[in-house]
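Researcher: We're teaching a course module on how sequence relates to structure. For the next exercise, students receive a sequence and then see the predicted structure as C-alpha cells, so they can try to spot secondary structure elements on their own. Here is the exercise chain.
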Amino acid sequence: MTDIAAVPGQRALLVSTQGGHLAQLLALRPWWEQRQRTWVCPDTPDVRDRLADERVVTSYSPTTRNVANLLRNLVLAWRVLRRERPDVVVSAGAGVAVPFFVLAWVLRIPTVFLEVYDRVDSPTMTGRLCGPFTTRRVVQWDTQLDVYPDAALVGPLL
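Model: And here is the predicted structure for the students to work with:
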C-alpha cells in the first residue's frame, strides 16, 4: 500500500460500483480516512450500508454496455469534478470510472486506477479504457505486472 500512500493531496474523489470494486476501495481506508473525500457510487443497498457515514454522490447504473448511463455519468463527472475540485480521483472500476478518468485528465487532475484482485492475467475492460487517462496504476498481484508493466505492486488488499 506504500504506492497509494505516496499519492498527494487532501481532497480525494473515490469512484466505484457496488460489491467487490467498492470493497477494494474500502480496504484503502488507512489512506483515504485522513483526507476530505467524496464517493461516487450507485444507490444500492450495499453502497448505502457500507458508506452510511460518508459523503456520496449517486452515479447512474448499470454502466456495462449502457450508452445512456455512460452519457449521464459523463455529465455527472463534469459537474462533480468542477464542484469538488479533487486533488486526485481514485477508482477500482467498474464502468463509472471511465468518464471520471477522461474528464479528470482533461482538467489535469491526477488519477489512480487500482486493478481488481481477481483478474490476474488479463486486463479488465475498465482498466484498458482508463489506461490512457491514468496517472498511476496499481496492481495487487505480481502476475498483473505482466499485463501492466507500468504499474506499481501494492499487494492483495482483500
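Model: If you want an answer key for the exercise: Helices lie at 2-5, 20-26, 29-32, 45-50, 67-84, 97-106, 125-130, 144-147. Residues 117 and 140 are 6 Å apart (CA to CA).
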